[in-house]
Amino acid sequence: MTATTDATVPTRDQVLRAPKVLLHDHLDGGLRPQTIIDLAAECGHPLPADDADALAAWFAESADSGSLVRYLETFDHTVAVMQSGPAIARVARECVEDLAADGVVYAEIRYAPEQHVEGGLTLDEVVAAVQQGFDEATAAAGGRIVVRQLLTAMRHQARSMEIAELAVAWRGRGVAGFDIAGAEAGYPPTRHLDAFEYLQRENSHFTIHAGEAFGLPSIWQAIQWCGADRLGHGVRIIDDITVADDGSVELGRLAAYVRDKRIPLEMCPASNIQTGAAASIAEHPIGLLTRLRFRVTVNTDNRLMSGTSMTAEMWALVEAFGYTLDDLRWFTINAMKSAFLPFDERLAIIDGVVKPGYAALAAEG
């Protein structure tokens, strides 16, 4: 989306105050460093640092190291301290508090319940603990933020049907949909086709991590075989787009289908750079995909590991591409249109929160 001459390039403070919508954020990737220290002390889990600043630096360095082993090790620590009901509820509550402080008005937070049962919790108890934290924080926020859960199954495990059934059982009680995550290479989404077919029969929403670490086949399977409503990341759709020397663009059949069908792309710029899916913000496919009017959304992925926030992600795009308030509003409405929330509730947030919020910022001049 190119900037228009009468549109305002926002200040960072305006980006902070702008209403934002977040569709791709992992609960176990957004803990406060001090919370990790507190919870680790309670459960006896050893950490690489015992000071909040030092621990935050360790997470950032590990995530930026270029080593997948070190990147994944960061989650070993966050998941380890989220094995009791009170611990999970605290993490969920603080997640919503942090998002509300960042100007997020709607968020879908994903996590894998199967990774939080080592302390004896059942899958149902894990979901209940997350919902307790969400309910406490949203009540304290006085209606400034709406939050829903996405239940994730791990691609390398065999519990996707169980998690899909759990998502359906909790539908209407805080869970908005289903996700599948984990290593793409060697673990195609079609391995879990029974779960996706079940969700479709139940008229349930789901997104699939695809097109981040693996290319077009992952995206094609997620859409055409599994029926994904949205694509987690989806950056490799750029591989099906050819830009000629004269600047003309040609879309391949898959890219054209994704654009024509308005399939949302849950793009996470900072995280994509860490995982090697993009070289820099300025070179991130989000620039071209936005210009071509794909259904682009902006997200955080793992706020702790990437040292990011929705404000930071959007501000980086403003700096790299000169995006205006109109552009940020477009990203935000894209995300709200794509949310796994009933139509009337989506419309109420767009018309009652997002549009007035951006109009007020634009009026500041």
UniProtKB/TrEMBL annotation:
Catalytically driven reaction(s): 2'-deoxyadenosine + H2O + H(+) = 2'-deoxyinosine + NH4(+); adenosine + H2O + H(+) = inosine + NH4(+)
Keyword tags: Hydrolase, Metal-binding, Nucleotide metabolism, Zinc
Pfam family membership, one: A_deaminase
Superkingdom of origin: Bacteria
Similarity remark: Belongs to the metallo-dependent hydrolases superfamily. Adenosine and AMP deaminases family. Adenosine deaminase subfamily.
NCBIfam families: aden_deam, PRK09358.1-2
Protein name per Swiss-Prot or TrEMBL: Adenosine deaminase
Amino-acid positions noted as binding substrate in the UniProt annotation, renumbered to this chain: H26, D28, G182
Family matches, as HAMAP family: A_deaminase (MF_00540)
Cofactor(s) in the UniProt record: Zn(2+)
Site entry: Important for catalytic activity: H233
Active site as annotated: E212 (proton donor)
Co-factor note (free text): Binds 1 zinc ion per subunit.
GO biological process: adenosine catabolic process; hypoxanthine salvage; inosine biosynthetic process; nucleotide metabolic process; purine ribonucleoside monophosphate biosynthetic process
UniProt cross-references to InterPro entries, sorted A to Z: A_deaminase (IPR028893), A_deaminase_dom (IPR001365), Ado/ade_deaminase (IPR006330), Metal_Hydrolase (IPR032466)
EC class of the enzyme, as a word: hydrolase
Residue ranges occupied by any Adenosine deaminase domain in the UniProt entry: 19-355
Xref: Gene3D superfamilies: Metal-dependent hydrolases
GO molecular function, one term: adenosine deaminase activity
Role noted for this protein: Catalyzes the hydrolytic deamination of adenosine and 2-deoxyadenosine.
